[in-house]
Fold each of these.
Amino acid sequence: MTDTPTVPPTGRAFDVEHVLAGLTLEEKASLLSGLDFWTTQPVDRPEVAVPGVMVTDGPHGLRKQADSPDHLGLGTSVPATCFPTAATLGSTWDPDLLRRIGAALGRETRANDVAVLLGPGINIKRSPLNGRNFEYLSEDPVISGELGTALVEGVQSQGVGTSLKHFAANNQEADRMRVSADVDERTLREIYLPGFERVVKRAQPWTVMCSYNRINGVYASQNHWLLTEVLRDEWGFEGLVVSDWGAVRDRVAAVAAGLDLEMPASGGRRDAEVVAAVREGRLAQDVVDVAARRVLRMVARALPALDAPGTYDADAHHALAREAAAAGTVLLKNDVVPGPAGAHGAPLLPLATPADVAVVGELARTPRYQGAGSSQVNPTRLDDALSALRATTGADVPFAAGYTVDGADLGSGTDEAALRAQAVEVARDAGTVLVFLGLPASYESEGFDRTHLHLPAGQVALLEAVSAVNPRVVVVLANGSAVAVAPWQHLAPGLVEGWLGGQAGGSGVVDVLLGAVNPAGRLAETLPLRLADTPSYGNFPGELGHVRYGEGVLVGYRWYDARQADVAYPFGHGLSYTTFAYDGVAAEVLRPATADAGAVVRVRARVTNTGGRAGAEVVQVYVGDPAAQVLRPERELKAFAKVDLAPGESRELVFDLSGRDLAYWHPVLRRWVVEGGEFVVSVGASSRDLRGAVTVQVDGEDVRLPLGPLSTVAEAMTHPVVGPRVEAMVHGGGVAEDMLGMIGDMPLTVVADFGMGGFDQDALAALLAEADG
Ligand code: BGC
């Protein structure tokens, strides 16, 4: 194991192998579950002293509970910086920023005597309805993997660990503790696993947390294929697998499958089951030793930092949270609004004259900045947009609540209609009206899913009322996952997606509105027009204990592109206050491709800031494989780079695509293959705003299955050795042109049974022998 603590060993250090050799079976088994909700089991006797260490949530801030422990975010926790949720962080497309946030999270973790922060969560956003999407980064595995890697590297740079979660196929909250995600292997390999694979291979998280759900019928916690064959044997994971809290149904099966640590405590009962299984020969002693060794290594690895906890600068972390909130804010729309008669029109943002702005919407005053559940942080401070706007501009910005969030008590004589009427008066004469809308906490949370994509009706009614008296409206959204903007966005020439931006979300979004920060956030999830358009519609959240991943690899933008469906805003979209031009898009093939080959295609593109402001562009590289033996998505994100450019500045970017970037998972051969042929490499500003495309010819594998009795005539005709003979037989046998399709689809053994054209089972056996030879 590559143990590289960033601080020197201290007095509590111990030698893992020495300790392990001296432990009884009971002690080893006890190490494999928690002491309590948040602490690992110590071993405490005169000859051996292994401390217990604390692990806590995660992912976007530390949730260390002082008392009344629970894993649902109910009990209070120590103050900690509430960084933006993953929904916002995903939209930054900025690994460097996430590495800095990770380091800040690591400092807070360490300063609070915690060994492992339980995050990041990198599950794929399969449906916008998932109540926990705010904790996940993207609908795309490259984004999830790249940003997840950066977070893990950042946290672990501080000598504390991470827990990459929830492994795997935990893409909904409905029935999450039992449901079987029924998903074919190709889809797992191409969509749901590669984010985890990338983070594991590049950053070696100290721990991986297995999910609650079953995968094709087998609980993740008991899934040997997942936890041992894929995670360790294929990907080389060196750390420890911990269960999600309460995810273990059969502890002995779980240990045998590769689960090392069950959390939280099981009161010793489950440990006794492990001991009994070893004594009765149902579980190998070796397996217990390996798991105990992994727990001991994790503890040993954590001690140096725990013995030198250090401090952190809460103000600096708040400033970083603000930077991140602004960076993850996505300017969806900034239409030109007609000026007064005769004057040129202009977009409403950035706010040209902040002094004549009015703000409506309770969420501007009472921000919704994080999601509910185990990730809920007790923030060190809290910025709301209204105060931030007033403080930054010095103006006494008029405000009206317009609606209540989550049914707050309005007091006597006031109702929602009255609130709306007040808002209309505040908005009527303003130069620009900022309308803050979003999802109430009761709409989305860990533990349950949404049932629709709509904002509360009262909020939409407010927007309608305000825009009727003043069309100069900018809507600012707060929500943990996509909402349907189509029903009302025509009422707002400006639209800003702030997600759940953490404790500095209010000030961060104001930085964007005022232009102090030029927006550079990009959508890491598609905003669909309607729920019925979404890829998993009809297959989400499943029923009777099963959820069928019927859309296969067509998740997120892959689905909308395959169906040529309109969307509200595409994956990768986000506007800026400047403009960018692309040119010089080129692609060059460097070598023939196998799935494990390094750089295979070199892509170049130049991007220029053609506007008047400094800004950052996110250059996105997509790859498509138009002809393959399997259905492939129209295009898939394979690389991206965020570049800061001064006005007029140009930069040439170079991306190397590997064999794996071109490969698909072959469901029969059960490995990655690059099928040779044409690939289309596109470079653009979003998945639907491609600025250049190049077709390259790549030498790949000649992917073919071995010929057998069930191979079809058409398949046999393409065989390099016997193909020409089969073709001659077909054509020589006088098969009419219009019958070729039917014959071509027939298995060889059926043709042989019919004895067509003298081709019988003996002839088939000879043919197959020749093909193999
Ligand atoms: C959540 C995990 C969390 C754990 C501990 C579980 O319910 O799914 O993400 O880390 O509780 O709070």
Amino acid sequence: MNNIIIFDTTLRDGEQSPGASLNINEKLEIARQLAILGVDVIEAGFPISSPGDFEAVKSVAKSVKGPVICGLARAIEKDIDAAYEAVKYSARPRIHVFLATSKIHMKYKLKKAEDEILRLAVASVKYARAKCADIEFSPEDASRTDRDFLHKVVEAVIAAGAVTVNIPDTVGYTTPFEFAEIIKGIKNNVPNIARCVISVHCHNDLGLSVSNSLAAVLNGAGQVECTINGLGERAGNASLEEIVMAIRTRNDIFKDISTGINTKELYKTSRLVSKLTGMIVQPNKAIVGSNAFSHEAGIHQDGVLKERITYEIMKPEDVGFEETRLVLGKHSGRHAFAERLKKLGFDLKKEQIDTAFDRFKALADKKKEIFDEDLETIVDEEIARIPEKFRLVHFYISSGDEVKPTATIKLRFNNKVLEASSTGDGPVDACYKAVDKITGMTGKLMDYQIRSVTSGKDALGEVSVKVSLKGSIVSGRGASTDIIEASVKAYLNAANKLVYTSKKS
Ligand code: KIV
Ligand code: ZN
């Protein structure tokens, strides 16, 4: 079997999605889940880009075992130094150096001629190689690079010590047939190509990133760079779950090709990334969308009941979709609760279980049936949270079609309870304005999404927001059986994140 290397860049290119920024704890949580999912390489960040990113890559390198941990660097010594200082704690560190090679980038962005680019590429790879054995090089905008020059650069960086050469379709411009030709061209024209792994990194501007990546795999690419839920710059990167399931489902085409991904972890990973980045997965998203395995038309439902393969090409359980199960209720005890959390994969300390149990009991008073998804939300809310500098104590709203919506909010801040009231365009707006009066930060709501965690009138509602606060776009989320409360919690989560990250940096 030819095992394709799955290089996950959710924490680097994925985090470059507008508004998807993650703090260190969130990056660590995702990295741990990526290791459980079985990715081969985690690109944990771009260490020179900020002190926060440097620390995040370092923490991932220190604590996530199994995958190679990679840091990105421009072809500049200080970038390479920062990348190495962050990844060196991993048992399997990698530095990924990139430099643009297309005429457009060389002329307008770098203002350098081909000779100079070639020299810089070789010098940077040699410099990185002196620090670390595992070096990847990317000729940025490769798909729009003159082919002869591309071959020359690839040959030179391999000779300089790169063991992986990544061919990015940086602007998502290529098409599958053309990209296959580019990969074939490299295989046929670069004399030392057998000494390295060919990787591909496709963006989705024309919606072709997965197709382009798969075309490359069929033509000799040994590594695919991709992200969970297809996150990434602009229209995103190739989606990991789509690539992996295409290779697995169409093994008649991808003969003898496999990946090391534990596909049963795909849905869980997708949910985690969606929650932490605040980027909601569209219901019709292939593989992990909530409708991906739902059959609406009567003819389809009838067909599936008669024989599943009439309308289903994959089994939902193979990607980790499980029947929602009723797990616990009001009378369930602490032991059953702790056992269930263990089964869901949470490894919590006693105090964390106690906190989550109190929250569970409060929820069980409002909601008859508690499902696995509810428990995941509780743990996520109570345990994996950043410190709550501002904590909701109480809220009161009056609203209706003939009254001006008004809200009164009480927040705990430094052991004091502070109160403010405001009117607004709606109850949520009124609450947010009252919160702003207390925090002293005026937030501008950029995005607001609500979804129900499970079904039923008493379901938990989960709100995700993106708020512009003090010049940064911060995501937040909150859950409650009351959607106004969930909205306030999400807004406060964003404010707390900003306070937490500005304190750290
Ligand atoms: O899209 C791109 O070209 C990149 C490189 C840094 C690999 O993200
Ligand atoms: Zn990219």
Amino acid sequence: MTAVGIDAIEVWTGKLKLDLAETFAPQKGDDPEKYTKGLGLFASSFPDAYEDIVTMGANAAHRLMERKGLEPDDVGRIDVATESAFDNSKPVSTYVAGCLEQVYEGDFHHANKGERKFACIAGTQSLDDAVNWILAGRNRGRGALVIATDTALYARGDAGEATQGAGAVAMYITEDPSVVELSTEQGYGSADETDFLKPNQQFPSVDGKRSVQVYLSRMREALADFESVAGATHPDDYEFIPFHTPFPGMVRKAAVLGYRHMIRNTDVEEELADEIGRQPRRENFDDDAAFEDAIREHMDDLKETDAYREWYADTIEPTLDVSREVGNWYTGSVHVARMSALMHAAGSDTDLAGKKLLLGSYGSGAQAEIHEETVQPGYEDAVEAANIDEQIAARYDLSWSEYEQVHDRHNHEKRVELEPFTQPDGEFVFDGWGPMNERKYTYAE
Ligand code: HMG
């Protein structure tokens, strides 16, 4: 069967940063380590006054097209995944195409455009749509642009405020891809949940603690469903496991559950038996409560073993490097985690070509999806061209009162004027309002 997957990836971070230890924690009267150690986050990205989901998405897509030497005719589909849309009818992909048409000779009139919504998992669903479109033979030799773009803002004072973020990931999906091939096997865990939602409102209503449990439950279901088609998974099968990362502490919780599941009835469980015993089995307990207590105790011991710590350091930790610095990008988050791992491998001696990744995507509301990816030879060229570290380092460091102004500027209920903190340089910018209340964009040289 034809190999289909991601041929190129570009990331665009909002140009401002809120430092959680230096700026956020003192305002909240909190120990900075609650954020840096507990949540595992150092900073959040924010959009400058002239940035929004369209500019960030269009800028990431533009960089990608320039690097790959693509013209509009090469793109048969533009799908945007977002949960920060400002229009209930006209999709963000049309605004993005309008931006790109300002800098290319051709147009995107031939391209099918849409917008996907299912909280954060919409990014992976759009990727799926693009892959399926190619596998169905409908692409006429063209590739698909998939853009995950969000301004993940919470109401000020909400517990989620520390996990905000803003940025976009653009991916180009083709046959014979240069970065990763996607497996056809997938697993789902999906249920009607009200852990995090935005019923016609910009800032989410969140039951934060429950959302953590729902994430873990859906992820567990998705892994079991994936194994029902792909066979049992083993920790040694995967070089990296990028998860949806609202904050690295969430992944820490998911990783130990996944590891425990993967090693059950394997050589690894046997090897660890002398040290921490075998995993508790339900049939050996009188009731669920006793079984669950035993599981919790076992997981506390498992986390402390060298086998787990080494696996976590090699397989999970490299996926979190970027996320720690930028916060939650919702639809882009798992794609940032993949990129982070690939950049880590490209910068070390790891020979990743032909090796497997296991992707764990998640969206509140709620659904998890798990699939495998196979890294392609030459992936280093694709990721080395990305300049995420430079973008992260170049962000303007906001004071608390500047942060409040920026938050207001991006509040859809307010129309707040704000002098930008940075200068646009060869990029699309938000340029005011049109006669039908539409947002307008221009290319700033
Ligand atoms: P909170 O109540 O502010 O924090 O909210 P906490 O008290 O639970 O502390 C967080 C962690 O820091 C804990 O670690 C503390 O122990 C630790 P844990 O026990 O959980 O391992 N801690 C410290 N560690 C070291 N030194 C210290 C210290 N103090 C505390 N001094 C919460 C946390 C996640 C609830 C909040 O940030 C929130 O509501 N976030 C938004 C919701 C969210 O991100 N949920 C994640 C799962 S749902 C999801 O991922 C979907 C999402 O992306 C949306 C979508 O799909 O569209 C959100």
Amino acid sequence: MKTIIEPFKIKSVEPIKFTTPAEREEILKKAGYNVFMIPAEDVIIDLLTDSGTSAMSASQWAGIMNGDEAYAGSRSFFKFENAVKKITGHKFIIPTHQGRAAEKILFSIVGGKGKYIPNNTHFDTTRANVEFTGAEAVDFLNEIGKHPEVKADFKGNMDAEKLENFIKKVGARNIPLVMITVTNNSGGGQPVSMQNIRDVRSVCDKYGLPLFLDACRFAENAYFIKLREQGYQNKSVLEIAREMFSYADGATMSAKKDALVNIGGFLSMNDEALATKCRNLLIVTEGFPTYGGLAGRDLEAVAQGLEEVLDENYLQYRIKSVEYLANKMTSAGIPIIEPPGGHAVYIDAKRFLPHIPPEEYPGQAIVCEIFRVGGVRGVEIGSVMFGKYDENGKLIPPPMELVRLAIPRRVYTQSHIDYVAEVLIETYKNREKLRGFKITYEAPMLRHFTCRFEPL
Ligand code: F0G
């Protein structure tokens, strides 16, 4: 088989500023060893997130010029609404400025004290928006998804049996909705199978519960279904996506991922009464229902992006380029979550740095070292992001200590990825010299964004 090439040509470029390891040492120190505090200009290859970092196409930029900026009833809104309906089949489409704005509106309405929201794994903003209302966010990831070294096709699946037992325990009336995150970001970017969505749907039906998708990476999930699930090889990704959404009563979406834009999101649903409540809240917090916190031009770009993301040449390149980095890493012995996810490679920091305990944040040690060695920015997804404290102030670590290398869509070429692999391999060779960190400042919520560290 020939090399799978980037299915695009480059018309506009952004220069990369180069720095030396000594300069990066200073940059790290100044940032309190928190890579969220590093100016992006000082980063050589930025794998902090795949969110809002996509390169837009010429057609999307053309859409930007075509945007209709009318306050009410903008032409761009109808284009956006059609594009979303074509994929989700949902009746009511509510634009928001990004995914968490959709979550905020939804959970402000359905959440509250005494309520529970089950998910395969809540993303951090989703969990924060659930918990902010006083409700409890509970995760029911399938057992296999918790084992980074085990290869399986659908490690994002929800444990439908555990879900059902939970519903029986707390009572369906205390569960306003069940959510499935596709792909499962916090669990390694792993896909959820169609069968699993159907299984969760039938549990929901049994107890009369609505099912929502957190659909940020729906196209990558649909492509994995096409590649891995029996019966889907000859279906188009659009058909697969439509089937996924057909089992859901609604969705929250960050368009900053699989709509290939730099800002945007939406809420979709079939329940008219709920949609009315959401729109009323939208007017207070985001804007009028035909723009919802976005400009008309942004809606055009989302509509176009939703078309482009379903192109199977694009999706093949997308999934294969993540796999390409993962293969280089595993060939060098670097422990990762296997198989790699759709948007990112996740390093298993526990196995990478067995000499650094969770209390000393092994993931953070890797994040800092790859920045120092090569100016590559990744993100810790472990005790820094999800750690809690018990009553004695002792850290309660989450099950996994990970470092995510998220690949922006259509931004980096194969040589950039080769460089990243070289940086990682060098870091891995010197792993025994790495030391952990302690936190010297932290905010009460979502601490990873602003906390400061000192090396031990
Ligand atoms: N749900 C999932 C699964 C996500 O990955 C994200 C964002 C959101 C919801 C929230 O969307 O950022 O538009 O408000 N994930 C980004 C990331 C930030 O880096 O994985 P948002």
